[in-house]
Design brief:
This protein is mainly alpha-helical. The chain has eleven helices and no strands. It has helices at 2-10, 16-49, 59-64, 78-113, 115-128, 133-146, 151-175, 180-188, 193-227, 237-246, 252-286. The longest helix has 36 residues, at 78-113. The protein is globular, with a radius of gyration of 23 Å.
């Protein structure tokens, strides 16, 4: 009976699977149309208002910059250098995403189990997000570095700082979304707290959890990039953006190219989480 409750809590209405299969195609076409509109607005603004290439380079100049060589012609092409730095940033964001997700889920389970702890600790969780990340990142990176922590860990902690909050709120809301009648039925079957959690609360919380994980995925990339700015980091998209800003007057398209790569990392991370959501939800529906 508890398995029936699990499916009832997580299974969408009839017709939803077909709509979900059609959604990716429609969203892809819509995304392409939006990109085309942005490109037209970009180039149209340059032509209409006479914006110089120094302030707003042409799109072809930005994408063409990926084929130029770095270090005055002695280094690899910019596309290779960007890819290497993107891998570093992605690793930091992934580590921070795992730390923040684990912390957020743990806090959500604790808050769902105890109203007293929720009332006492949740205000501090919310208040932690009011502190600017630019003020926290140097303290965390430099402080952990002086304690001998690996460079990857210190930057992952900054990424986790932005990640744990949406996971905590989303997971907590999901755990509280179970209908009271379903909980009463589980108690009537003498189900333990663990059985109620695994068979009822967790399946009901999965849609909320994955929604918050999508938000956390992009936030972890932002945290990793910000963590790369202080303390003389050598690799990462954050370092590339900082260097491109310093040499903006000589090569303006490089900064725009670095921003595009940073956005691509966030989209990739979001896509991975969305794919995991589809696979896990589909597997639970099959069960």
């Amino acid at each position: 009976m508890s398995d029936d409750l699990t499916l009832a809590a997580t299974t969408p209405p009839r017709g939803a699977p077909r709509a979900r299969r059609l959604l990716p195609k429609r969203s892809s076409v819509a995304s392409l149309l939006v990109l085309l509109a942005l490109a037209l607005v970009w180039e149209g603004a340059k032509a209409l208002f006479g914006i110089s290439d120094q302030k707003l380079p042409h799109l072809l100049a930005i994408f063409g910059e990926f084929g130029t060589r770095t270090r005055g012609g002695a280094g690899p092409v910019l596309a290779v250098a960007m890819f290497e730095n993107a891998v570093v940033t992605f690793g930091e964001a992934l580590f921070g995403f795992a730390l923040g997700g684990l912390l957020g889920c743990t806090l959500a389970v604790v808050f769902a189990s105890s109203r007293l702890l929720e009332r006492g600790l949740l205000p501090f969780v919310v208040g932690s997000q009011t502190v600017p990340i630019l003020a926290i990142a140097p303290m965390v990176v430099v402080g952990l570095g002086r304690l001998g922590a690996p460079d990857l860990l210190s930057k992952a902690v900054v990424a986790a700082y932005l990640t744990f909050f949406p996971v905590t709120i989303g997971m907590l809301r999901g755990l509280r979304s179970v209908p009271p009648d379903a909980l009463s039925l589980m108690r009537s079957y003498a189900a333990s707290a663990g059985q109620t959690f695994w068979k009822l609360r967790l399946p009901a919380a999965l849609p909320y959890l994955f929604t918050s994980l999508k938000v956390a995925a992009t936030a972890s990339v932002i945290g990793a990039i910000v963590a790369e700015l202080p303390a003389g980091s050598k690799n990462g998209i954050g370092v590339t953006i900082l260097n491109a800003t310093q040499y903006y007057n000589s090569r303006p398209p490089v900064l725009y190219a670095a921003v595009l790569v940073a956005g691509a990392i966030g989209l990739l991370f979001y896509g991975i989480v969305a794919l995991a959501e589809r696979l896990i939800i589909r597997e639970r529906k099959a069960e």
